[in-house]
Design goal:
By secondary structure, the chain is an alpha/beta fold. It has helices at 34-43, 82-91, 112-123, 168-176, 187-192, 213-224; strands at residues 5-10, 28-29, 32-33, 48-55, 72-77, 99-102, 128-134, 140-142, 148-151, 158-160, 164-167, 199-202. The strands form three sheets. Strands 1, 4, 5, 6, 7, 10, 11 and 12 form an eight-stranded mixed β-sheet that branches. It has a two-stranded antiparallel ribbon with strand order 2-3. The chain has a two-stranded antiparallel sheet with strand order 8-9. A hairpin with a 2-residue loop joins strand 2 (28-29) and strand 3 (32-33). The radius of gyration is 17 Å and the shape is globular. It binds cytidine-5'-triphosphate and magnesium ion. The site of cytidine-5'-triphosphate has 22 residues, from helix 2.
């Protein structure tokens, strides 16, 4: 349905792994910040009616040019952890939105088709939906001394991306339950702990997360070679 989805965009991280500089979401690629790239792409998805951005405290990025007039835009200060930033954004999201997606600003080139795929799966009746890709490397579990404990079955493993989608009540319950608060690196982790079954849909190579300096180079390549619109 057109405009029935709210997207929360946590963008308040420091970007420590990227090295010294301004907060990661405010780093520029092709003269535009990662955050603006992310918001602009998300707004290309017809389902999206509202975008709530959690920005680094003390900053006020101008997102007007990235946001079409039909989109409701809210900007809040993020918190010390990603989870706190998402909670701050959720707290100001208008109650009329029953489908809520959470999308890392650092995945600035996720295509609008991916947003639609996740939203469609929620509308199909899944309470929580995440985009995933097959694992390309062999994954092993190690102990504290650096020795291998076991080799995991790669065929059963997936890497997880955003946007992750939730029925509003499910996401609110995940963030409300203090017993599940803690070191979660994504939002599905919160609702899994509540016993909610999380559904997967195919992810996209374009939804790669800018984490290390080499990722910036890859993102620049995607931008200049037209892979990312
Ligand atoms: N994020 C946030 N608030 C925080 C920490 C992270 O809104 N306190 C956001 C980041 O801005 C990013 C997303 O969560 O868009 C994913 O986090 P990550 O890739 O870890 O970004 P950073 O925390 O900025 O990077 P690093 O961990 O290297 O410092
Ligand atoms: Mg981080």
């Amino acid at each position: 349905m057109r405009g029935d989805v709210a997207v929360l965009v946590p963008a308040a991280g420091l970007g420590t792994r990227l090295g010294p500089g301004v907060p990661k979401a405010l780093r520029e690629l092709g003269g535009t910040s990662l955050l603006e790239h992310a918001v602009r792409r998300v707004c290309l998805a017809p389902s999206v009616g509202c975008v709530v951005v959690a920005v680094p405290p003390g900053t006020a990025p101008d997102l007007q040019a990235a946001t079409p007039a039909r989109i409701q835009l809210y900007v809040v200060e993020g918190g010390a952890t990603r989870q706190q930033s998402v909670a701050a954004a959720l707290a100001v999201t208008p109650g009329s939105y029953e489908v809520i997606l959470v999308h890392d600003a650092a995945r600035a080139f996720a295509p609008p088709e991916l947003v639609e795929r996740v939203a469609a799966a929620i509308r199909d009746g899944h309470p929580a939906v995440i985009p995933v890709l097959p694992v390309v490397d062999t994954i092993k579990q190690v102990d504290e001394s650096g020795h291998i404990l076991t080799t995991l079955d790669r065929s059963a493993l997936r890497t997880v991306q955003t946007p992750q989608g939730f029925r509003r009540d499910v996401l609110e319950a995940g963030h409300r339950d203090v017993s599940v608060a803690g070191g979660h690196t994504d939002d599905a982790g919160l609702v899994e702990k509540l016993g909610i079954r999380v559904f997967t849909v195919p992810g996209s190579e374009l939804a790669m997360k800018v984490t290390h300096p080499t990722d910036l180079a890859l993102a620049e390549f995607l931008l200049t070679h037209g892979e990312a619109r």
